[in-house]
Design a protein that fits this description.
GO molecular function: voltage-gated channel activity
Keywords: Membrane, Transmembrane, Transmembrane helix
Order of helices and strands: HHHHHHHHH
Shape: elongated
InterPro entries: TPC1_animal
Organism: Elysia chlorotica
Strand content: under 5%
Radius of gyration: 24 Å
Number of strands: 0
Protein name: Ion transport domain-containing protein
Largest sheet: none
Number of domains: 2
Structural class: mainly alpha
């Protein structure tokens, strides 16, 4: 049988334990001002609830827990990356990159766009896709970001395709581009196509 003395605050300590995201916050018990101490404690509890909801969402989506935000500074990037508006923007950019293939030479004759318009639209879509990668890097950190193979491959593809679109804009002439065949990967990497990846 467990013998707990009345002076032992183990139940309170377990209930007030800070999760991963609140570890870098200052300890509220070290503060002498009661208002600041209560505000800091409320912030820690809010972070604990957010962290618990993130764990539930990751479990529901069958995600690995190594992509969990490790500090409260990574939490805003995580929330932006998991926002439905951001998912929609990523899907729209991936579809636009796919549809631009119909306007490139050699394509359907009546759907051709000028090279400058086509190259600018492609760069805009690729920059939106790279925004997703930048937010992921902020939330995951360098090691986890480059450890994820699909995200690393997407980074290489975006860099290569951005370089190609800059070359097209400078030369004002389309050339044969092998990376056009890899464009469906951007669509598969979106949130709404995650069932296709599994």
């Amino acid at each position: 049988m467990l013998n707990v003395s009345p002076d032992d605050n183990s139940d309170e300590d377990v209930a007030n334990e800070v999760g991963n995201m609140g570890l870098d916050l200052p300890n509220p018990s070290g503060c002498f001002n009661q208002r600041i101490q209560q505000a800091s404690r409320r912030k820690q509890w809010k972070l604990n609830y957010q962290e618990a909801s993130i764990y539930l969402e990751e479990g529901l989506n069958n995600d690995k827990f190594n992509t969990h935000p490790q500090s409260h500074e990574a939490l805003p990037a995580y929330e932006v990356a998991h926002n439905h508006w951001f998912y929609s923007l990523d899907l729209l950019a991936a579809i636009m990159v796919m549809l631009l293939a119909a306007c490139e030479r050699p394509a359907v004759l009546y759907m051709q766009l000028p090279v400058g318009v086509h190259g600018s639209l492609e760069m805009l879509c690729l920059l939106i896709l790279s925004l997703d990668l930048g937010i992921r890097m902020k939330w995951l950190g360098w090691r986890s970001f480059f450890g994820h193979r699909r995200t690393f491959f997407k980074t290489l593809m975006v860099l290569l395709m951005l370089t190609e679109s800059i070359v097209v804009l400078v030369r004002q002439e389309n050339h044969f581009r092998v990376t056009r065949a890899l464009r469906p990967f951007f669509l598969m990497h979106t949130h709404y196509c995650q069932g296709v990846r599994r």
